[in-house]
């Protein structure tokens, strides 16, 4: 999993505008890439997205495998109406929702998986600082509802625009923006130590 540090200061910044053409990914007009190339290019992002939703690496990997199996069967139907990345995340999110319906309460599962993950992090002293940051973020994400966590993961971690995230998550645009706003507010306090002002106060840096 890539470092989470670059994400944290952005909690205080404005999210990508849904109307900004300069930040909107280009709509695909060419046929989708061959399936092996598709997997090679996007499996990391899909797995990371699902890990942030589930906080359970094993479950996320299983869901990622199901996602690409579904994508392979449906690849011929992809018409380029949006990015291939958002199309894959849409399939991944549906797989997550399907697994949630058949399992325990999401927050109970997150708590159990998170406790085990935290124990593993504490035992790894070689990367303690980086893992400590990851642990703080994962704990903070457990405060969010499934929809809020998915919205934050899509917009911040995966870099989708509001329009792309709304399409990927099958949400009206206004609903997506509301989930993002609520998630940012819930994350503000637990991640306040990573805000730019706090980091400058700790390090002594000046703007």
Would you spell out the secondary-structure blueprint of this structure?
Layout: H1 35-54, H2 57-74, H3 84-101, H4 106-122, H5 128-141, H6 146-157, H7 162-168, H8 173-188, H9 196-203
CATH homologous group name? PhyR, sigma-like (SL) domain
SS-based class: mainly alpha
Number of strands: 0
| SSE run | HHHHHHHHH
Overall form: globular
CATH fold descriptor: Butyryl-CoA Dehydrogenase, subunit A, domain 3
Give the amount of beta strand, in percent. under 5%
Q: Total domains, how many?
A: 1
State Rg. 18 Å
| CA distance, first residue to last residue | 30 Å
Low-confidence segments, ≥5 residues, pLDDT <50?
1-29, 198-204
- CATH architecture, please? Up-down Bundle
Q: Treating each run of at least 4 consecutive H or I residues as one helix, how many helices?
A: 9
* Mean pLDDT across residues: 75
Q: Could you give a short account of the major beta sheet? A: none
> Which CATH top level class fits?
Mainly Alpha
């Amino acid at each position: 999993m890539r470092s989470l540090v670059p994400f944290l200061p952005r909690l205080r910044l404005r999210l990508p505008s849904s109307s900004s053409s300069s930040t909107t990914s280009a709509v695909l007009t060419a046929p989708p890439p061959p399936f092996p190339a598709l997997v090679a290019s996007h499996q990391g992002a899909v797995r990371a997205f699902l890990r942030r939703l589930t906080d359970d690496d094993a479950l996320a990997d299983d869901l990622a495998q199901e996602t690409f199996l579904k994508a392979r069967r449906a690849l011929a139907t992809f018409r380029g109406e949006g990015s291939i990345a958002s199309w894959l995340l849409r399939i991944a999110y549906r797989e997550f929702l399907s697994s949630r319906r058949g399992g325990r309460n999401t927050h109970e599962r997150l708590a159990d998986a998170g406790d085990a993950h935290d124990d593993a992090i504490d035992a790894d002293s070689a990367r303690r600082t980086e893992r400590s940051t990851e642990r703080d973020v994962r704990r903070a994400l457990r405060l969010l509802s499934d929809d809020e966590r998915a919205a934050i993961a899509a917009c911040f971690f995966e870099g989708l625009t509001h329009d792309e995230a709304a399409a990927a998550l099958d949400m009206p645009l206004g609903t997506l923006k509301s989930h993002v706003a609520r998630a940012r507010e819930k994350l503000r306090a637990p991640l306040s130590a990573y805000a730019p002002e706090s980091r400058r106060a700790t390090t002594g840096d000046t703007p």
